[in-house]
């Protein structure tokens, strides 16, 4: 299974909004595994955000907050 490091590395490689299904396909994991992975990354201090609504075309998308 992918690690928090794998998630962050992927998201840094192409800085953009990510659909959950794109992250799952790229990391070879399921949506449930992605949710747990994002939670672990957030708990370790990684600034990941989830956006829903009109700004993302009414779909959920993740992004990595730089800072």
Can you put this structure into words, describing what you see?
The chain starts with a helix and ends with a strand. With 67 residues, the protein is α+β, with helices and mostly antiparallel strands. The radius of gyration is 11 Å and the shape is globular. Helices cover 46% and strands 12% of the residues. The chain has a two-stranded antiparallel sheet. This is MarR family transcriptional regulator. It comes from Vibrio ziniensis.
Number of domains: 1
Measured by DSSP, the beta-strand proportion falls in 5-15%
Described by the principal axes of the CA atoms, the overall outline is globular
Instruction: Tell me the quaternary state.
Output: single chain
Largest sheet data: 2 strands, antiparallel
Number of strands: 2
Number of helices in the DSSP assignment: 3
Q: Give the distance, in angstroms, between the N- and C-terminal Cα atoms.
A: 27 Å
Specify the helix fraction band.
40-55%
Unreliable parts: none
The helix/strand order is: HHHEE
Q: Mind telling me the C-alpha Rg?
A: 11 Å
Tell me the structural class: alpha+beta
Please state how the strands of the largest beta sheet are arranged side by side. Answer: 1-2
- What is the average per-residue confidence, as pLDDT, rounded to a whole number? 89
Quick structural overview:
The chain has 67 residues and is an alpha+beta fold. It has helices at residues 4-13, 20-27, 31-43, and strands spanning 48-51, 61-64.
């Amino acid at each position: 299974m992918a690690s928090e490091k794998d998630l962050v590395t992927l998201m840094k490689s192409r800085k953009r909004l990510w659909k959950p299904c794109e992250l799952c396909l790229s990391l070879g994991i399921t949506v449930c595994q992605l949710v747990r992975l994002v939670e672990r990354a957030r708990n370790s201090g990684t600034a990941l955000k989830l956006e829903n609504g009109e700004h993302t075309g009414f779909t959920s998308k993740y992004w990595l907050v730089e800072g």
